[in-house]
Structure formats: structure tokens, C-alpha cells
Specification:
By secondary structure, the protein is mainly beta. Helices cover 11% and strands 41% of the residues. The chain contains 1 helix and 5 strands. The chain has one helix spanning 46-52; strands spanning 8-11, 21-26, 30-35, 41-45, 53-57. The longest helix is centred in the C-terminal third of the chain and has 7 residues, at 46-52.
């Protein structure tokens, strides 16, 4: 799965605050994600994150 820094991940299950969307801050063997609801940042293993991703929203720069 192609996930890059700056993408927004919509997950199958919500964060404890109730938000489903997360910003990708770092990618590699682990992802550093920021919850769009409460702003909490956390690390999650790539395998676990990819299993729980519903959609990936990519912001494109056409400028």
C-alpha cells in the first residue's frame, strides 16, 4: 500500500476520541499519525495500520 507523508487515512475503527481520520506525519516500518479529532500523536506498526485503513486521501500539489 502506498502511503506517504501528508496523506489523510480514514480508518475502519475510531480513535477513543471518536475521530476516524488521521494525518500521516512519518512513514517507514512504523507510521507516526496525528488524530484529526484530538490532535494526539502516536506511532503504529505499518502492518497494523495498513490492515485498519479504509481509504487514503492524498492532497496533490498542482502548482
Amino acid at each position: 500500500m502506498d502511503i506517504r507523508v501528508g496523506d489523510v487515512l480514514k480508518m475502519k475503527k475510531p480513535h477513543p476520541c471518536g475521530a476516524f481520520e488521521f494525518d500521516v506525519l512519518r512513514s517507514g516500518m512504523d507510521f507516526r499519525l496525528r488524530c484529526r479529532g484530538c490532535g494526539r500523536e502516536f506511532m503504529i506498526p505499518r502492518a497494523k495500520a495498513e490492515k485498519n485503513v479504509k481509504t487514503v486521501e492524498r492532497v496533490t500539489d498542482n502548482a
